[in-house]
Specification:
Elements lengths: L8 H7 L4 E2 L2 E2 L2 E2 L3 E2 L4 H17 L1 H12 L4 H22 L9
Antiparallel strand pairs: 1-4, 2-3
Length: 103
């Protein structure tokens, strides 16, 4: 995504196809799902999100919160994918490298 670093976080998530799209009409409420965007970016982010949800302490905590709240594991992984793209966008925008939090 050459636009990464020049977008706000919502636009980066939407461009990668990781922004939730709600299906609602009147009193009927459907389920939110991800749609649109670039499928190749979603496919490329799946495995890094899976690894990050297991080994990155911050993203593992977010994954655990979502699964304990009753979200299906695939939905929690999608949320981690969105966090990764937002993080990458912020790092590129500020021209800095990722550094883990000091323990």
């Amino acid at each position: 995504m050459p636009e990464l670093g020049e977008l706000d976080e919502k636009a980066a998530a939407a461009l990668s196809g990781l922004a939730p799209m709600c299906r609602q009409s009147g009193r009927w409420t459907g389920r939110a799902s991800i749609a649109g965007g670039r499928a190749i970016v979603r496919q490329a982010l799946y495995m890094p999100a899976l690894v990050a949800s297991r080994f990155n302490p911050d993203l593992k905590a977010k994954y655990d919160v979502l699964t304990k709240a009753g979200k299906p594991p695939k939905v929690a992984i999608t949320a981690i994918m969105r966090k990764l793209i937002v993080l990458a966008n912020a790092l590129l925008r500020n021209n800095r490298k990722w550094t883990p939090k000091p323990a």
